[in-house]
Structure formats: structure tokens, C-alpha cells
Amino acid sequence: MTPVIETIDLSRGYGSVPALQSLSLSVPEGTVCALLGPNGAGKTTAVRILATLDRPDSGSARICGFDVVEQAGQVRRRIGLAGQHAALDDALNGRDNLFILGLMHHLGRRRAGARADELLERFGLAEAAGRLVRTWSGGMRRRLDLIASLITEPPVLFLDEPTTGLDPRSRNEIHSTITDLARSGSTVLLTTQYLEEADRLADDVMIIDSGREIAHGTPAQLKDLLGARVEVLVETAGLLSGAAATLTGLGGRELVTDAESGRISATVPTGSLSLPGLVRHFDDRGIALLDAEVRRPSLDEVFLNLTGGSR
Ligand SMILES: Nc1ncnc2c1ncn2[C@@H]1O[C@H](COP(=O)(O)OP(=O)(O)O)[C@@H](O)[C@H]1O
Ligand SMILES: [Mg+2]
Q: Which of 17, 50, 160, 161 has most ligand 1 atoms within 8 Å of its beta carbon, as the pocket-test mutant?
């Protein structure tokens, strides 16, 4: 099946700054892909090219099979874009914002009105719809901006940092909205600086830094990349060296020993290492444990590890 969003070796520089370097991305229909990276990683550059607002220096990109440069009109008819900076008119109420946007997209008064009401209802903003947007909370405004990108019912959505700067509660609301969108069959490319957001929302995550792919996979695959952190508590200090040898034998690295408490921890290469499996390794060597823990890394830790802490 042809991917809905596809980039091949996409590159774009600004002067001497390589904003995007050979980015190749493929997003199947009905899935959510997160482009994850720190400030300046190239996320907005990628979104702008895909949304036909900018052109690549080299490489190509297609949306629903249409080339973003050669067939920009066809692409525009199929996409919605919600940015980090809400494109709303503060001096209008919520409904009028959507209504006018509908008129701008040639929906006609009746359809524009109906579409505005339908979206406000569906995303829980009907009650506030008559109030000036100026009086809305940050989270509500961002939600309105997000649903504004849906006015023409585009099959493909670009959400550029939809939750940056929002409080946790508003962020949660946006998350549910995005989940709803994905369920309704939209294909979503989302950019974010938040690892837990990519973890929660995306089927597929591409981590970029300096415009370049650093890692790519499902959230679970990315966590596996880093392995698991194992910590054990031995019964007596005399068992510590044996415990260290056991962990090293399992491929453990970054060993940290606390002789006083009898704790020793290490990163082991497999994320699927189970706690019972681990305990058995120690048991086989006659090393009595008082406690053992296997912890999978958060996507945050994966990110810091892969980017060398450049965030
Ligand atoms: N219009 C521009 N002119 C010059 N440099 C730019 C421009 N847009 C982006 N850049 C640079 O390109 C890099 C990527 O920027 P951007 O795509 O906005 O990153 P992100 O959205 O991930 O924060 C940054 O170093 C940024 O300073
Ligand atoms: Mg950006």
C-alpha cells in the first residue's frame, strides 16, 4: 500500500544551517507518526515542506501520492495544519473563527456554519463557542486551533507541537483529541519535544536531531534499543563481586555498586529480560538476593542517550 505521507532523502538548509538532512519517512494510512526532537531539530522545516509552505533543496515528498512541489494544489486539498502559534482571531468568538475559516475555504454559509457547530460539539467546545476567544484558556484556544485544521475534513493532518507550553490538563485534552482523530481514520504527523507524548500517541516515532534521523521505530522498539536497568540488593557485602560478575555476564554495562547498602545496578542489553529470569541467574550462582528490580527506560532516557544529551 502506498504510504499517505512519504519523504525520500529530504534536505533543506538555511545558509550554512542544515535544517533537514536526508530525511526519509513513510507514514501508512490511519496511523500517527511522531517526529520527536529538541528545539531546532528540523521538525517545523519538515512540516512546512510537507504542507507546501516551503521547498526542499533536494529529495522529494509525496502526500497521498502527490508531489509536494509539482502538485502542491492537490496536496493542499488533502491536508490540515495546526501550528505552535494559534492562527485564531482573539476578537471573534469561537464559532465565528471556524465559520469564517469555512467561508475562506469556499464552503458556503450553510455548510460553514454546520461544520463549525459539528466540530465545536464533537470536541467539547460548544458551550464556549459564543464567547470571545480572548477569554478562553490556553488549552481551549489550542484545541480550537486544532479543530480549525479539520474544517475541510482533510485526510492528512500535520500538528506542529500541538501541546508545547500547555499545562498538563490541557495537554491531556489535546491528547484525547488527537486519539479521536486517529480513530476516525486520519493520518497524522505530529511533532513534539515531549517523549511521553510520542510514547502515548504515536504508532511510529522518528527521533531527529540537527535535521537528521537518530532512531526510528515503535515506542517499544526505541525503549528496547537502550535495554533495561537492573538493580539488585544482595544479602551480604561479600556477594557483591559475584553479583557484579553475574551482571557483566549478562552483558551489563554502566555498573554502579553501593557497597554500604549492598546494591548494585547495571544496564543490560535486552529490554525483554524478565524479573524471574534475572533472579534465576543469581540463584544459579548461589547469590542470595533481598530485592531485584528490572526497569525499562523511559523514552526520555532513550532520547538523552541517543542524542548524547544535547537537549
Ligand atoms: N527561515 C529560516 N531562516 C534561517 N534559519 C532557519 C529558518 N527556519 C529554520 N531555521 C533553522 O533551521 C533549524 C531547524 O529549525 P526548525 O525546523 O524550526 O526546528 P524545530 O521546529 O525542530 O524547532 C534551526 O537551526 C533553525 O534556526
Ligand atoms: Mg518548530
A: 17
Both 203 and 64 in one domain: the answer is yes
User: Can you say whether the dihedral through the CA atoms of 60, 206, 20, 142 is positive or negative?
Assistant: positive
Q: pLDDT (tens digit, 9 = 90+) per residue, 235-254?
A: 999 999 999 999 999 889 88
Region of poorest pLDDT, from 24-38, 177-191, 292-306: 292-306
Take residue 86 and report the three cell numbers written for it. Answer: 494559534
Give the closest residue (by CA) to ligand 1 atom 7: 14
For residue 111, report the phi and psi dihedrals to the nearest 5 degrees: -70, -35
- Compute the average pLDDT of residues 191-209: 93
* Domain span at 187: 5-220
Contact assessment for residue 11 and residue 212, using Cβ atoms and an 8 Å cutoff: no
Are residues 209 and 149 both part of a single domain?
Answer: yes
Q: How far does residue 234's CA lie from ligand 2's centre (Å)? A: 48
Nearest ligand 1 atom, CA 41: 22
pLDDT tens digits, one per residue of 122-142: 888 999 999 999 999 888 898
